[in-house]
Amino acid sequence: MAGPVTDSGENQEGKTPVRAALASFMGSAVEYYDFFVFGSAAALIFPHVFFPSTGDAALVMSFATFAFAYVARPVGAIFVGHFGDRIGRRKVLLFTLLLMGGGTFLIGCLPSYDQAGWIAPALLVFCRLLQGLSAAGEQAGASSLTLEHAPDDKRSFYTSWTLTGTQGGQILAALVFIPVVALPDEIKYGIGWRIPFWLSAVVVVVAFFIRSRLNETPEFEEAKANNEVAKLPLAVLLRDHWADVLRVICCAFIAAVSTVFGNLAIAYGVAVGMVDSITLWLVVAANFVALFTQPMFGRLADRVGRKPVFVYGAVASAVMMPFYLLSMSQGSELLVFALAIVTFSFGYAAANATWPSFYGEMFSTPVRFSGVAIGTQIGFMLAGFTPSIVTALGGVKEGGWVVTAGYTAVVCLVASVAALTARETKDVRTADLGLRTSRAPQGAVA
């Protein structure tokens, strides 16, 4: 049972929820700074720099490079999840942080198509795969680490900071990228677009310093001391938690909403006449408000449960997305900003804040990292291919809001139905999470 929490945020058992939440926030900020910079560049820069054709063909190929990371993520999830459950959350998270930062920095050093031909997009794909391998374990590990440090009655609130870090990263990326798109073409498509990728090194250094000062979680240390660390976490996971893995995969489809909002909407807004910089400011505004609404949704999930808050976020996203997209062609910037904030900050943010605790609490300590990593990364593949799929269907052309809104509604429906089949865990002690279907001893798997 968790000890009483002191004013410093630490309790008598040595848990450090505030520091764990900060470390998770910074790690997610790095990941989503890197991912949003890449996504913005894929929509606005890469079609002109890395591909020989123009128009929709170049955009589809550019968005395909965005998707490649999501192909690597399930593979990385198995690898990273295994070691996260075998040697600990903290060590693996330090590795993923450096891998993500390194891959992003290298992108800024790549030659263009005019300089290297098809070698240029091939190298871009390789660096993107490095990002994907890193991302496979970042959020799963960060949410597991924070959940296992948090008091039983505040797990959703503290783990919500893992995903609130994504908002911080997206805000920082957009603020860095906005001046880039305003540059003259010869500078923007020359050295200008590279600067945001190089700046990722600064964010990585700060996050690494914070994370390196954090202890391993008490839950993992206890499992290790009791010889309950699984020798093959994947085998235990598929034996005892296969239904939960499938449930997380379907729930994770909700991430496609973030991709639609942060990447596709940018391209669609430009297609219907909006200025590039305005579409980026929409992302900044919505993510800034979400910095405040997501912790509120996390607290709400600790009071009323994970399922109702998650399902509300999915349904609200599906209902509001068509209004948001339609507003882009109405000529009212105030209306577009208002609907962007409502759709993302008061809709999708509810599901985004809740899923770290919702998914993590489905699994027991010996397989939590693997369960969340594998389940989310397979589900996130849909989000990764969303830009290419919707663009190929005409979703970024004038009138394409119908395709994009319909696609969003379908993924939200699947996520909602899957969430409704889950067990509510807000009142379950951390030590008892995932034990309903588990077999003991879990560490006995060869």
UniProtKB/TrEMBL annotation:
GO terms for molecular function: transmembrane transporter activity. Signal peptide: none annotated. Coiled coil: none annotated. SUPFAM superfamilies: MFS general substrate transporter. It comes from Nocardioides turkmenicus. Its main location: membrane. It is found in: Cell membrane. Residues 20-427 form the Major facilitator superfamily (MFS) profile domain. It is a multi-pass membrane protein. GO terms for cellular component: plasma membrane. The keyword Plastid does not apply. This is MHS family MFS transporter. Pfam families: MFS_1, Sugar_tr. The chain crosses the membrane at residues 32-51, 57-80, 92-113, 158-179, 191-210, 245-266, 278-297, 309-328, 334-355, 367-393, 399-420. Keywords: Cell membrane, Membrane, Transmembrane, Transmembrane helix, Transport.
